[in-house]
Amino acid sequence: MLTDLPNILTLLRIASIPVLVVLLSVHSPTANVIACVVYTAACITDYLDGALARRWQQLSELGRMMDPIADKLLVGSLLLALAGLTQLPVYSLYAAIIIMIREILVSGLREYMASQRETLPSTRLAKWKTGIQMVAIGFLIGGDGAAEMLGLSFLPATLIGGIFLWLSVIPTVISGWGYLTAGLTRIMAGQSRKSSKISF
């Protein structure tokens, strides 16, 4: 049900996106700190919605579909906003491009497989990928200005965020390749079964 708490938390994660984009557009350390707080809360809902759904036995196809979509919307929107605001250091714009390409390819593959009544379950590596990306984006949202405002001027937050974004490319590419090969294998197996039935 859409009104189940886990699904509401997922919807809140999606609802936080325009708030975060507006805060980033303000270009002030105070707004960046607030954005970090909102973003941290959104990331916590990513853990809570799945944990609560399992504990309360509220697992559903709707929730299973919405959760990865919410993650992709959050990560993708913030990467685009940070790129547009030129807040991606150490050539990490290219890391963001790789991440976006992977997400679009996997989403397209999942959509096609759903039309063939096949599924592509999430892997542990993909969850690590999302976690590293979220840490990277958190540092990039705050930036050096927020670090200085919090008395952490020694912390190169923007540089750390850029490095973590590049690190996230490793599980991004590996998990993406795993999804692609698994998806193609299932599609080919499904087509073979259909051909066998027709022959018979």
From TrEMBL:
Any one cellular-component term (Gene Ontology): membrane
Membrane topology: Multi-pass membrane protein
Principal location class: membrane
Name of one Pfam family that matches: CDP-OH_P_transf
Enzyme Commission number: 2.7.8.5
Top-level class of the enzyme under EC nomenclature: transferase
Location in or out of the cell: Membrane
GO molecular function, one term: CDP-diacylglycerol-glycerol-3-phosphate 3-phosphatidyltransferase activity
Transmembrane portions of the chain: 31-48, 69-85, 134-157, 163-184
Keyword Transmembrane on entry: yes
Keywords linked to the UniProt accession: Lipid biosynthesis, Lipid metabolism, Membrane, Phospholipid biosynthesis, Phospholipid metabolism, Transferase, Transmembrane, Transmembrane helix
InterPro entries referenced in this protein's UniProt entry, alphabetically: CDP-alcohol_PTase-I, CDP-OH_P_trans, CDP-OH_PTrfase_TM_dom, CDP_ALCOHOL_P_TRANSF_CS, Phosphatidylglycerol_P_synth
Keyword Transmembrane: yes
Catalytic reaction equation(s): a CDP-1,2-diacyl-sn-glycerol + sn-glycerol 3-phosphate = a 1,2-diacyl-sn-glycero-3-phospho-(1'-sn-glycero-3'-phosphate) + CMP + H(+)
Lineage top rank: taxon: Bacteria
Pathway: Phospholipid metabolism; phosphatidylglycerol biosynthesis; phosphatidylglycerol from CDP-diacylglycerol: step 1/2; Lipid metabolism
GO BP field: glycerophospholipid biosynthetic process
Family, per entry: Belongs to the CDP-alcohol phosphatidyltransferase class-I family.
PANTHER family for the chain: CDP-DIACYLGLYCEROL--GLYCEROL-3-PHOSPHATE 3-PHOSPHATIDYLTRANSFERASE 1, CHLOROPLASTIC (PTHR14269:SF62), CDP-DIACYLGLYCEROL--GLYCEROL-3-PHOSPHATE 3-PHOSPHATIDYLTRANSFERASE-RELATED (PTHR14269)
This protein's name: CDP-diacylglycerol--glycerol-3-phosphate 3-phosphatidyltransferase
